[in-house]
Amino acid sequence: MLKSVINAVMLAAAVFMYNNGAAQTPARVQVSLNKVKAPMKPVWACFGYDEPNYTYMKDGKKLLTEISQLSPVPVYVRTHSLLVSGDGEAALKWGSTNAYTEDAQGNPVYNWRLVDSIFDTYVKRGMKPFAQIGFMPQALSTHPDPYRHHWKPGAPYTDIITGWAYPPKDYKKWGDLAYNWVKHCIERYGKKEVESWYWEVWNEPNGHYWKGTQQEFFKLYDYAADGVKRALPTAKIGGINIAGTSGRGAQQWTNAFIKHCLTDTNYATGKIGSPLDLLAFHAKGNPKLVNGIVQMNMSPQLRDIATGFKIAATYPQTKSIPLIVGESDPEGCAACGMATNPSNAYRNGTMYSSYAAATFARKYELEDQYNINFKGAVSWSFEFENQPWFYGFRDLATNGVDKPVLNVFRMFGKMGGNRVEAVSDRMYALKIVMDSSVRGKQSDIGVLASKNAKSAAVMVWNYHDDDKQGPAEPVQVTVNDVPSKLVTLTHYRIDDKHSNSYEVWKKMGSPQQPTAAQITQLQRAGQLATFVSPKKVKVGSDNKLSVDFELPRQGVSLLKIDW
């Protein structure tokens, strides 16, 4: 009897210690600052969205300012509907600029006022357009009516496909539209500035966005690219921002597009080949609801990226040109909130943050594996004006308040120089993640590290596909080869108590009409916070710096070391 009581007490004590993190084996992280892997390219410094008219609205400008400030390099911004006809009214999955109309005789009339408002907003902040030549102006569309859609969350996605998705009735006018647009940009911003931009034709021609044939799309591309190059021969243009890159049909499209640009007769010029200065494709994950709990899945997203890299590496002409993941996200529809799509409930809290950290680290691994020119991965998330607070859109901010995910990019902004060797005994291997994501009993406690001349940064995350809370787990970080005996250590953190406006909002009672004082508090909570304030730390005689801490599930830490 006594033995049974003792065993019961010991078991209860063990459970208590586990739940409080005391009985867990620490995740061991080793960073070697002298073992350089590759440049720490700021591939994360790219963002995009469907609704171009949000750009110059109040919260849009505020967020773009914050995005520009978090990056040490110019941020690229990609948006749809820059040539769509309309009055400039902003709406979900809709935008317009009325850049092109025709007079009574059918002559082109160009109006760059709204397009300029968009690009002015970027350029004034030191940002760069990833300028999308699309979609089809109503006056040029072969099926001009119906044209304006009024899509709402929960409605069929196909409801957005109207006259803007069709081929032009006159390809020469289409090419001249591209020519005049680029020519106008040179006059407004200068040749050197426009040379630093990327240009692309259309979006996801293998999906809903294109109602023509494959050859009609190649013709569309040829005329647009010819127009761009006539205006600025040094402009960088490419495509095709294919959807579902790893699918068989998408691979066929991508290979056919590359071969067309390399060896086919150009529809616009009659010569062989078409300009291809960059190659872009899309990559999406696939979350779902399992027994009422969101379960993420990064495998499809990483397989899409691997496929795009592999295709580019196949051709000598595309192996070294910039490769851009034109949309790189946990799933497909930014404007589908969690009320209509419950599997999107990950977006407000720290799960989105840890997912971003874990996937970007694997993108770097894929770059190393395929040895290509990985230039950027566009996070297709921005903000939605005049929408409910924390509605669950895939956005970086809500009503001018930053969400936790934006702070991951603030962390990335503090990393630079070169990526260095960093290993964790709790980080899932790339192959496992590509095969089955992170579904094991243990979470993925992973690491990404960088070093430049006078500082280093170590990002550590605790990620799992299942959106469940768990006890904070101990982490032991050892940084080797520290080139100074005295450093300043700053520990930044994203978790339920740090860098998290969502948790603060919930504690307020989830107000849909917060007071001015509450908004100020939420804005402050939305900034990147320190877990441990900056402090001077002595480095051991062996040039090693050890840092121990506990990291909650779905939390992210960044150790910044300055000397």
Low-confidence stretches: 1-23
How many domains? The number is 2
Shape type: globular
Distance between the termini: 61 Å
The pLDDT mean sits at 95
Sheet having the most strands? 9 strands, mixed
State the secondary-structure class: alpha/beta
Helix content: 25-40%
Count of extended strands: 23
Structure description:
By secondary structure, the protein is α/β, with parallel strands linked by helices. The protein folds into 2 domains: 27-35 and 418-562, Glycosyl hydrolase domain, family 39 (Immunoglobulin-like, Sandwich), CATH 2.60.40.1500; 41-175 and 202-414, Glycosidases (TIM Barrel). 30% of the residues lie in helices and 24% in strands. It has 13 helices and 23 strands. It has helices at residues 2-19, 58-70, 113-124, 171-189, 191-195, 214-231, 248-263, 299-314, 350-370, 404-412, 430-436, 501-507, 516-525; strands at residues 27-39, 46-49, 76-79, 100-102, 108-110, 128-133, 198-201, 236-242, 278-284, 288-290, 293-295, 323-329, 374-377, 397-398, 401-402, 418-424, 444-451, 455-463, 473-480, 486-494, 529-538, 545-551, 556-562. Strands 21-20-23-18-17-16-1-19-22 form a 9-stranded mixed β-sheet, covered by helices on one side. The longest helix is centred in the middle third of the chain and has 21 residues, at 350-370. The chain is globular, with a radius of gyration of 25 Å. The model is unreliable at 1-23 (pLDDT under 50).
